[in-house]
Specification:
alpha/beta; about 300 residues; seven-stranded mixed sheet; about 10% strand; RNA-binding
RNA sequence: GCGUCGGUGGCAGAGCGGUCAAUUGCACUAGACUGUAAAUCUAGCGCCCUUCGGGCUACGGAGGUUCGAAUCCUCCCCGACGCA
């Protein structure tokens, strides 16, 4: 079976990934697969930076939830209910299905998104342990002190205990959950698929990125971000759930619980900006360790890289 | 002008004779990442030396008391409040 080319676009938030993806899609006949852990949820639109659905796009019939933006098909947006827990595993499953479809259509899959874990799980095809969340077990473990969790894991799987973050409770709990079901936490493997990909990373000067974050937040607030959050709550999402989405959703949810105002005080805006900046830095930390990424500064470099890549 | 309280590391704010280069939070920098990943977690953060460790400069300024001062005293500068 011949290997199919895929393009991946990564970079910190507000770096212009979506625009680049559309541009490449237009030029090379591509379809876009979003890799964003918040854009998968229906209703999280402005805050997650979701791309707009084309107004008069005739019903797009290939995948049920996909839609056109600037005439380009976008996938894996709005595929989950915000009331339900979504996960990398589901993303991986949906993503590989969509990519196969796109390849079948003879189009170029362009994976584009800020969630590094999602991008990697999809492209490298991680063998994630087939252990669904066990809510009862989690609730029980949640009551234990962190050291106790470590001890439990050490007994179940001393090897995993060796390299886990012993202070990170969610990780400990998940590891115990897996080990309890499987007898151990199997080492993470990647399973090859008939794909090969080029990863393009968008590099933005830190000062400039901060400015872009600031400007984009202002735009979002003007676009009705606060109303979006309030409506989500009105439609049944708990404040707690909204807070768990982080950044815009968390800050505004916290604010809206104590205020009916439609304007965010400037000190809260500053704090939110800082949080988004921290997030951007965490994203960079994630990708820095991948030496295969081609970091680019403008569209031209990206199109050139893509052209060369597709020639091979 | 008198009185009171205060001036601590980028900011906020502890410490109030030794164990203090100075708790803590924020910011900043770096890192991790096995089904919550916009989440979660870790480390560093005065300067110099190669780590253990050591040296130097520091708690508004200048003096002083003391074996020893961010901590006590005196004067000066600055701020807040009160009385004029």
């Amino acid at each position: 079976m011949p290997s199919s080319p895929i393009i991946a676009i990564v970079g910190p938030t507000a770096s212009g990934k979506s625009a680049l993806a559309v541009r490449l899609a237009k030029k090379f006949g591509g379809e876009i697969i979003s890799a964003d852990s918040r854009q998968v949820y229906r209703g999280l639109d402005i805050g997650s930076g979701k791309v707009l659905r084309d107004k008069l796009s005739k019903r797009y019939k290939l995948e049920p939830r996909s839609y056109l933006h600037q005439g380009i098909p976008h996938h894996l947006l709005d595929v989950a209910s915000p009331r339900r827990q979504f996960s990398v595993a589901q993303y991986q499953k949906l993503g590989s299905r969509v990519i196969e479809q796109i390849i079948k259509r003879g189009k170029l899959p362009i994976v584009c998104g800020g969630t590094g874990f999602y991008v990697e799980a999809l492209l490298k095809n991680y063998t994630l342990p087939p252990v669904p969340p066990n809510l009862k077990l989690r609730a029980k473990l949640e009551k234990l002190p962190t050291e106790k969790l470590g001890e439990k894991l050490e007994i179940l799987d001393p090897e995993r205990f060796q390299n886990i973050d012993v202070k990170n409770r969610p990780r400990l709990i998940r590891a115990i959950e897996i080990a309890a079901a499987l007898g151990e936490v199997p080492p993470l493997e990647t399973k090859a698929r008939p794909w090969h990909w080029l990863t393009i990373g968008i590099k933005v000067d830190p000062e400039k990125l901060r400015q872009k974050i600031k400007a984009r937040l202002t735009t979002r607030l003007r676009a009705g971000l606060i109303n979006e959050v309030k409506n989500l709550h009105r439609n049944g999402l708990s404040w707690k759930r909204l807070e768990s989405f982080g950044l815009e959703y968390a800050h505004i949810a916290r604010f809206a619980q104590h205020s009916v105002s439609h304007r965010l005080p400037s000190d809260l805006i500053d704090k939110l900006e800082t949080d988004i900046w921290h997030y951007a830095k965490r994203q960079m930390t994630w990708w820095r360790r991948d030496p295969t990424i081609h970091w680019i500064k403008n569209y031209r470099e990206a199109t050139q890289l893509t052209r060369d890549f597709l020639k091979k």
